[in-house]
């Protein structure tokens, strides 16, 4: 599905994760590739393009028409919605942020989240969130309740190294959401997103287990332990796993030793590989850099790929490609055709990056 300059269809994704990250450049390190990258916008034509590999009847993907499932029936019951016949549950999981979930505007809404969940439920049974501000945890859980879909949510708490107030605010918001909706649809609570990546690069360091990393790890581990204590004190009917998300090369061993699961961002495009070789690169990198080291730890945290995808376009012409890694719709299609099918077959847990274009992260919804 073409989705380049005008953000149509199920197209382009943005690498921005928060308002704070848009205000600064950062170093991205994946494997041995180190370089200063410009924040990019890229495409993820999801669902329809993968579905054609699962069922021949689902090959129609022309144009940028609004998905059939975008509207509820005239009854007004969100659980009785029209299904898009082109879509199938092709993905293990999907990275998701409700549109407008940025402070201070908080332009998200239950109506829009319900529409998203209706559509997401036709693509996957799992989503991961990045943070809890703007009441997004409760909005997603309420949307699942109203749509009555099979969906597991990994909720998130975005940790800021220099200010613990955002962590506490989001922790309390998550607690309230769990008290309201219970644990049936919660797969885990993720504390921190690319915390170690940001902590190290802001201090000119790259060693995830060096002395500078040890300082940052203690901040993050304190919040992880605090989240465990909060959940333990709630007397829940099931134990909720507590995890952490970071760039693939930036998992600190002490942090890994303190969590139940890790979410690893692995983007082959940053490694200067071709679209044809991207699926193999992602799988090998994830296995060697994340899965194998985690398996050696006493707690053996389960590792997931938190983000992976392929860009169709860069917002900066100077970064239209990374060596052999060309940003293109054809490259995206190749990656979808190879990685998704291989990962599903081999049982690799992943969250595809990502659900919708997120132009609003650059120009927030008011």
Automatic annotation (TrEMBL):
Its EC number is 3.2.1.39. Residues 53-66 have a biased composition (Low complexity). It is found in: Cell membrane. InterPro entries: Beta-glucan_modifiers, GH. It catalyses: Hydrolysis of (1->3)-beta-D-glucosidic linkages in (1->3)-beta-D-glucans. GO terms for biological process: cell wall organization; polysaccharide catabolic process. The chain crosses the membrane at residues 27-50. Belongs to the glycosyl hydrolase 17 family. Glucanases play a role in cell expansion during growth, in cell-cell fusion during mating, and in spore release during sporulation. This enzyme may be involved in beta-glucan degradation. Active on laminarin and lichenan. This is glucan endo-1,3-beta-D-glucosidase. It comes from Sphagnurus paluster.
């Amino acid at each position: 599905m073409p989705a380049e300059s005008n953000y149509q269809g199920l197209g382009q994704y943005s690498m921005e994760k928060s308002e704070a990250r848009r205000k600064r450049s950062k170093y991205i390190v994946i494997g041995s590739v180190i370089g200063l990258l410009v924040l990019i916008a890229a495409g993820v034509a999801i669902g329809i393009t993968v579905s054609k590999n699962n069922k021949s009847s689902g090959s129609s993907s022309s144009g940028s028409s609004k998905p059939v499932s975008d509207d509820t029936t005239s009854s007004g019951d969100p659980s009785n919605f029209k299904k898009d016949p082109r879509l199938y549950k092709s993905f293990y999981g999907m990275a998701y942020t409700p549109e407008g979930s940025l402070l201070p505007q908080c332009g998200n809404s239950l109506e829009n989240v319900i529409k998203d969940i209706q559509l997401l439920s036709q693509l996957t049974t799992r989503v991961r969130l990045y943070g809890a501000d703007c009441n997004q945890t409760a909005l997603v859980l309420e949307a699942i309740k109203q749509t009555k879909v099979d969906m597991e949510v990994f909720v998130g708490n975005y940790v800021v190294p220099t200010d613990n107030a955002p962590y506490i605010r989001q922790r309390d918001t998550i607690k309230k959401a769990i008290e309201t909706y219970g644990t049936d649809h919660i797969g885990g609570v993720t504390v921190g997103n690319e915390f170690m990546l940001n902590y190290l690069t802001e201090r000119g360091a790259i060693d995830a287990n060096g002395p500078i990393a040890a300082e940052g790890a203690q901040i993050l581990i304190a919040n992880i332990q605090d989240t465990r204590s909060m959940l333990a004190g709630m007397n829940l009917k099931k134990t909720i796993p507590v995890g952490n998300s970071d760039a693939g090369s930036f998992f600190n061993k002490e942090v890994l030793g303190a969590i139940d699961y890790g979410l690893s961002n692995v983007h082959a495009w940053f490694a200067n590989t071709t679209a044809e070789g991207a699926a193999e690169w992602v799988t090998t990198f994830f296995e060697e850099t994340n899965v194998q080291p985690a398996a050696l730890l006493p707690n053996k945290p389960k590792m997931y790929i938190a983000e992976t995808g392929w860009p169709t376009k860069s917002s900066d012409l100077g970064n239209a490609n990374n060596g052999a890694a060309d940003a293109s719709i054809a490259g995206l299609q190749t990656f979808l055709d190879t990685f998704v099918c291989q990962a599903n077959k081999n049982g690799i847990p992943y969250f595809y990056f990502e659900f919708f274009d997120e132009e609003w992260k650059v120009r927030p919804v008011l």
